[in-house]
Amino acid sequence: MAEELFKVRPDFVASVSLAVLKSILDDLLLNKVLNDGECDALLEGNLIRRDKARTLIDTVRNKDAAGADGSSSSKISTTRKNKDEKIYPVTPESMKSRVALLITNITFRDPQKNRAGAERDEQNMERLLRTFGYEVVKYRDCTGKQIDEAVLDFSMHPKLKDTDSVFVVIMSHGRRGHVLGVNWNHKQTKEEATEKEDVFFNDNIFKHLASDECKELENKPKIIIIQACRGEGKGTVFTRDGATEELECDYTSASDDHNMVEDGMRYMHKEKDFIAFLSCTPDTVSYRHPVKGSVLIGHLVDVFNTYAREEHIEELFRMVTQRFEEVDLKYGQMPNKDRVSLTKNFYLFPGN
Fold this sequence. Notes:
This protein has 352 residues and is α/β, with parallel strands linked by helices. The chain contains 12 helices and 12 strands.
């Protein structure tokens, strides 16, 4: 069926109505082809009808190709994946212990800095994470200190022992190297980025979840997503048009190898099995629609819902980045992977 769906895909995307789309979703939900989270994410995570149609047909096509009905081919694929030394192990049991941290700053002490549309980002990310089986630990409107405390508390979550991976998603205003707390003083300049400011330094995520401080996450993928500006510059030169005027930005102003070690002791990499996905390149801005949410989260939800059953995490992030080159070049925003220390491929599902 996957091949047949691929053949009719262009006509389906071009002509299917929203009413028919919703009717198809109802049938797929009734027949347990899709779950509630996947249906909601498809409708809410895509801004226009064509994107909804494209995501729907690709999701069903990929599920069919993956043997999502529990077929023997799916079981064989799962077994092979779990034995592949180049792939992080994921099992149905480990998926039951998945947990994610979601922090969204929306309302600031300075009302001019309120992040209109961030509610939609929070909703879309929570729904997406739950679709992949993650329990979502959620915080809203945090100071820099509270963000740090939330990450530290998360590093001691009881589910980390049995999980196969974690997500940490932080969405706020930002500058290079840190995100802003809700009490940030807009009158301070970027040269005054000291500990006295209400900021959270991104390095603390890697510190709190590193192998030496969070042994429960050793050798497990730790996926970091940060939606925030990293400066005030533009990533490209562009001419303004109607679309960009609706958008806002999230910027505000060793030892020797041959040495023996004692029994029970070993070397380990402090920062390993991380991958961070940042909403823009250094010193540039990120864009957010005051109603529909950020450009990054919209593309990310669409790509993950469509391709997460067949692609590993680095490829998914590459596909999100490609959307900005193909669709949103005019915004001058380009997300990028950062501090990648994954040693294997990480798939969100155990079977292909």
